[in-house]
Structures are given as C-alpha cells and as structure tokens.
Amino acid sequence: MTRRRTLADRDDILGAAMLAPSLAYVLALVGIPFALAIVLSFTDATAGSLHFGWVGLRNYAAIVADPIFLKALRNTAIVTLASQALAVVLATGAAQVFRAAFPGKRFARFVLLLPWAVPVSLAAIAWTWIFDSTFSVINWTLKVAGLLPGWLYWLGDPVLALLAIIIVQAWRIFPFATVIVLAGLSSIPQDVVEAAIVDGAGFWRRLLRIELPLLLPVVAVAVLFGVVYTATDLGVVYILTGGGPANATHVLPTLAFQRGILGADLGQGAAIGVFLLPFLILVAVGMLRVARRAEVGAR
C-alpha cells in the first residue's frame, strides 16, 4: 500500500512555503521602497505634488558637483570605518574579560547589552547632554582630573563633532560585536589553546597569533553588519548635530533627509540615498572576501 505524501514529505515545497512569508515581508518593506527610490532619483519629483517628469541623470550630476554631498560622502566613510574599528577593538577586549569567571558576570552582561536595547533616539538625546558645551560630563571630569587646560565644544567644532558621532556609533555597535566575538572565542578548539599554553605562549602571543586569525571570519561578519547598521543610520547624526555646524557633519542619510524631505526635493534626496548602495556593496564584497580567505587559511 502506497502511503500518501503530505507537505511535510516534500522538502522542496515545504522550504519554499516557509520562506515565502519572510521574502514577501522583505519585498514589501525593502524591495518596493528601494525600487521607488531608484525611479524617483531620475525624476524632478517634489514633496506635496503627484506630478513629476523624467530628468535622467540630472540629479546625480547635481549632487556629484555639490561640495556638501562630497563632504557627506567622506564623513559617511570616516564615521563608518572609524566607529567599526573602535567597536571591534573594544569588543575583543570585552570578550576576553567575559570569558573569565568573576562575581556579577551575569549582571555585567546585562549592562553590556543596554546600548543595543536602548532606542536610538533616547540614546542620542542622552549623548547630547554628555557632549553639551556647558554641562558636558566629559569636560568636567577631565577638568577635575587636571587633564583639560581649556574647554572642548564637542558639538560646535567640526572635528570634535565628527569625533563625537564616531564615539556614539561605536558605543551602539559595541555590544553586538562583543556577543559575536565572544561566540567566536567559544568556538575555538580548546586543544589548540592548551597546546599554545604548553608551548609557552603568553596571553598576547595567543591573542595575536592564534585567536585573532581564527576569529577573522567572525569579526568580518560583525564588521559587515556594523557597517550596514552605521552607514544607513539617520538618528544619531540628526539628533546630535543635525549635520552641523555649517553642514560639516552631514552623512548621506541626513543629507538625503534634508534635501528630500525638509527641502521637498524628492528626486535629489532619492539620488543621495541611492548613492549608499555602491558604497555598501563594496564594503560587503570586501568583508566577505576577507572572511572567505580567513576560512581557507584556517583550514
């Protein structure tokens, strides 16, 4: 007697059926808006009007010749790469600490995850007070410690404002990177570490010669997520500086918002937003190649 096949017996159909809702969700919330942004970038569409005309590459030519856009593009690269480098260094150190057993370890892990759980708007408002020109806790602490001869106007100086944005972005991604690095450290074969200890390798030699090379694929994935998360973020820069002073700290998302929404030029705003795509593709391809080479080298 032949048993009747059910949906559970058809792996190909079952897999497609289970993936369909998530694919539809991504298509509706990401794919359609992205396609619409590409179409709008080739038009003269404005906010408040349903009528627009096709202008070809005029929006792209205008933003490429705009010094503010070029500065925003540079700031996006600087903030993204610098914050990820800082986050990876801090995450590697924190992961080494959390490997050890100490009193209050669970509470420390809970505190570690708070920056990742706190809404970006609340976090950015708190950091605005931390970097306030009059009440900055950083300035007062350095002043009391005798390490600050003058006064730092964090959000009023272009260089310091950019540094403040880097610090906040690194603070946001740091918990996520720590969890990933900690998971990577846990996956390293213990016999490899024990063999290195027997051979007389100290902490720094084990870290630099054994653990970090084995962690490179994991770190590359963490950096890739962090780059996408940071490069597309609008809230931190918009709340901290609003792109100021004098448009010095604009990144691509804030400039796109300023031109497309506040300035009502949807076509140019969409063109600036679409410009993020090649930047993210280059970073993603680079990180995946690094991870692939590290995996091949580890074998």
Give the topology, please.
Blueprint: H1 11-40, H2 58-64, H3 67-99, H4 105-117, H5 120-130, H6 137-144, H7 158-187, H8 190-198, H9 203-231, H10 235-240, H11 252-262, H12 266-274, H13 276-298
Helix pairs in contact: 1-12, 2-12, 3-7, 3-9, 4-7, 7-9, 9-13, 11-12
The helix/strand class is mainly alpha
Q: In percent terms, what proportion of residues is strand?
A: under 5%
> Which fold does the CATH topology refer to?
MetI-like fold
Please tell me the total number of domains. 1
Would you identify the CATH H-level superfamily?
Answer: MetI-like
Instruction: Work out the number of β strands.
Output: 0
Cα(first) to Cα(last) distance is 49 Å
Report on this model:
The chain has one domain: MetI-like fold. The protein has 13 helices and no strands. It has helices at 11-40, 58-64, 67-99, 105-117, 120-130, 137-144, 158-187, 190-198, 203-231, 235-240, 252-262, 266-274, 276-298. Helix 2 crosses helix 12 (266-274) and helix 3 (67-99) runs parallel beside helix 7 (158-187). The longest helix is centred in the first third of the chain and has 33 residues, at 67-99. It starts with 10 loop residues before the first helix and ends with a helix. The model has no long low-confidence stretch (mean pLDDT 84).
Features:
mainly alpha; 299 residues; 13 helices; single chain; MetI-like fold
Short description:
By secondary structure, this protein is an all-alpha fold. The protein has helices at 11-40, 58-64, 67-99, 105-117, 120-130, 137-144, 158-187, 190-198, 203-231, 235-240, 252-262, 266-274, 276-298.
